Amino acid sequence: MARPSKNAAIDYATTHDLTHGLLERAACPDGLPFVLVKDADKRGLRLRVTKAGGKHWQFETRLRSGRLFTRALGEWPTISIDDAKTEAHRLRGLTEKGIDPRNSEREQHEIMSAATEAANAHALTVHDIWPRYLAEGRPKRKDAWKPGYRASLDVMSVPGGVAKKRGQGLTRPGPLYPLLALKLADVTEDALQVWFEREAVAGKHQATRALMMFRGFLRWCSARPEYRRLVDRDAGKAPAILENLPSNKKRTDVLGVAQLPSWWQGVEQLTNRTASVYLKALVLTGARKEELAGLTWVNVDFQWRNLTLADKVEQTRTIPLTPYLAHLLATLPRVNAFVFASASKAGRISDARSSHKKTLQSAGIDHLTFHGLRRTFTQRGRSVVPAGAVAQIAGHKPSATAEGYAILPLDDLRPYAALIEARILEQAGIEFDVKAEPGKLQLVAG
After folding, report:
1. CA distances, 213 to each of 45, 130, 137, 156 (Å)
2. Scanning 56, 356, 369, 415, which has its CA 20 to 30 A from the CA of 256?
3. Which residues contact 138 (CB under 8 A, 6 or more apart)?
4. Model confidence over 248-263: pLDDT tens digits?
C-alpha cells in the first residue's frame, strides 16, 4: 500500500498509523466542532482535534456492562504518541478483563490515602494532640476541668528557659514537657520508665503527679478512634514504674486537742497580723487555703453574718460568719478588695508558709500541713455537731456528707457553725464574749 502524501487530505472516517507529521497536519474541517484521528494500532485510541485547534488524546471503549468508558489522556504533543499508546494498551487490558479502570483507580487511591493517613498518624507527636486534649479533655464523670487541675497541666508542660521571678537563673521545663516530643506510637512502657526515673531525681512526688496526669491523657487518647490504635493505654503502669512510686498513704496530720493552745499562742505571736488572722480563719472555717486567700470584702456580710467563698466543688459557697471570726476580720485594715491583703502582685496573701512554719516552731509541733488545719476543723466539729453540717460548712463534695443528711438553709446551719467555733476556742484556751461587736473587744488567753 502506497504511503499517503504528506499534503494529502486526512480521511477522518478511517484509522491511521499515527505519526508526528500526520497529527501536525490534522485540522477540524469547517462546519464541524471537532474530528477524531483514530489509531490503527491501538483500538480505541484517538486524537480529538477541535475547531479552535486543540489536540487532545482520548481512549474510548465499551465495558462488558455495555456502558461507554471514555478517558482523557492529555494534550498532544505534551503526551507523545508512544505514551498515549502505552496508556491505551493498559486501559484496554483492564477492560478486556472486565475491570472498570475507574473502580480500580478508586481502590488504589483509597489504599494510597489510607497508607498516607497511617503514615501521618504514626508521625503524630504528643505535642500535636496536647492542645486538643486541653480543650476537649475532662476527668471521668465531670463536665470540665477543675480550674486548679487545668492550671497544673499548663505548669507541668511548660518548656521553661525563662528568667525566674525569684532568684537567679532560668526556670526548668515542666516534668511533662519532655514527653511532648515523643511520637504517640513511641509512648511505651520503656520510654515512660526512662522519663520517670529522670524526673524522679528532681522530685519523686512531682514526677508521680505528672505521671498520673499523663495517664489521664493516654486514657483520653484510647477513647478516640483516630488515636486508639496509636497508644498503649497501660504504658504508664509498667511494673518498674509502679514499684518506684512513693507511698500513697493518706495524710492524717491534724492539730490534737493538747496542741491547740500552743499553736494558737504561736499564731498570736506572729508580727504579720494578716497572716495571723488568716491561719486562725483556716481552722475556724475548714476552708481550703486558696478559697480563703481569695476572699474579698464584698463577700463578707457583717450585718447578716455571712461569708461567700469560691468553692472547689461548686462555683461559690456561702457559710455563716461566726462571732469570733467576725471579730477577727473586723480588726483587719481595708487595703484593697481582698480581706487578706498583701503588697504582692496578686494583692492578696499568696504564700503563708513562712508564717505557718514560725507558728509550728513556736508551738513545738514537728509537722502540720495547711490541709491539716482543715482536718482540725472537721475533727473538732464532728465532736459537737452532725457530720453533715461540718461537711456543708467545709465545702466537702456531696458524697462526703453523712448519709441522709439534708443540705440546711444558712440560718439553720448558723447554730452549728457557732458551736464548732466555741468548741475550738474552748480547746485553744480562748475566752470570748459572743455578744461583743466586731472590733470592739480584745481576746483574753485563758
Report:
1. 64, 12, 12, 9
2. 415
3. 144, 145
4. 555 678 999 999 999 9
Q: How far, in Å, CA of 382 to CA of 374, rounded?
A: 13
- Under a CB-based contact definition with an 8 Å cutoff, are residues 280 and 352 in contact? no
8 A C-beta contact, residue 308 and residue 316: yes
Q: Phi and psi (nearest 5°) for 227?
A: -115, -15
Q: Say which DSSP state 352 is in.
A: -
Q: Full-prediction pTM beyond 0.70?
A: no
User: What is the rounded CA–CA span in Å between residue 445 and residue 372?
Assistant: 23
How far apart, in whole angstroms, are the C-alpha atoms of residue 44 and residue 409? 90
CA distance 19 to 77: 11
Q: Judge whether 68 and 60 are in contact, CB under 8 Å.
A: yes
**CA–CA gap between residue 345 and residue 432 (Å, rounded):** 36
Q: How many CA atoms lie within 13 A of 152 on its CB side?
A: 13
pLDDT digits (tens, 9 = 90+) for 193-213: 999 989 888 888 888 899 999
Q: Count Cα atoms within 13 angstroms, Cβ side, for 280.
A: 28
Q: Quick one: residue 90, left, alpha or beta (phi over 0 = left, psi -120 to 50 = alpha)? A: alpha
Residue 35 three-state SS = strand
Q: Give me the residue label for grid cell 499548663.
A: 154
Residue 239 CA to residue 176 CA, distance in Å, equals 20
**Cβ atoms within 10 A of the Cβ of 340, count?**
22
User: pLDDT for 378-407, tens place per residue?
Assistant: 999 999 999 999 999 998 865 544 445 678
